[in-house]
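Is 5-O-phosphono-beta-D-ribofuranosylamine placement plausible here? Inputs below.
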Amino acid sequence: MANPHSDRPPLRLGILLSGRGSNFLAIAESIRCGRLAGVEIAIVISNVAGAAGLAAGRDLGMATALHISKGRSRDTHDADVLACLREHRVDLICLAGYMRLLSPAFVAAFPDRILNIHPSLLPAFPGLEAQEQAFAYGVKIAGCTVHFVDDELDHGAIILQRAIPVLESDDTHSLAERILAEEHIAYTEAVRMVASGEYEIRGRRFVKRNT
Ligand code: GRF
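Reply from A.M.:
I modeled the complex. Tokens:
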């Protein structure tokens, strides 16, 4: 849906996911209810056939595409996904539980235009099972990070983070659940900030411009 308060055409999101897609659905709901104006989802792409998120996108009547990555080289697969994103005139890519590293060519094709969400306060606990890593380490504060994607895993400039206390009563499951609730808020907020264009990246620092 276009932003009625702006002359700009809507920013077209490409969602890449591999699994349940709750972050994708949180973004979709934010758009639907007007929390994320001037943004639309152009295409939902999965690299996994049975991804629940892909089925959810289809059920919502969105354009979806399946590009199975298993058994294919990273470069070949990424070239297909890139072609699909271009075909759907995507401006900004949101990785939403996309369990696949992007090739340098992919990252270079969308410089500072690829966002990822990670369930830890980076740079702590990059990689898989971040919530379990944080819990086992015994941290008192956990959270999530939305960042730009660069060539290193879970590494690019941080757009925003949300933190929560780890409770005495937590186990890895309850902690992961509470982090996920923060992720759903954080991704919408980060997309809104990037969509506004009112920021600069100074070194690693994402700095909001005064409007
Ligand atoms: C989230 O925890 C996200 O931070 C991580 O993968 C998980 C995806 O969950 N990158 P969902 O598919 O969005 O529900």
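Short version: Helices lie at 22-32, 52-59, 74-87, 104-109, 130-137, 172-196.
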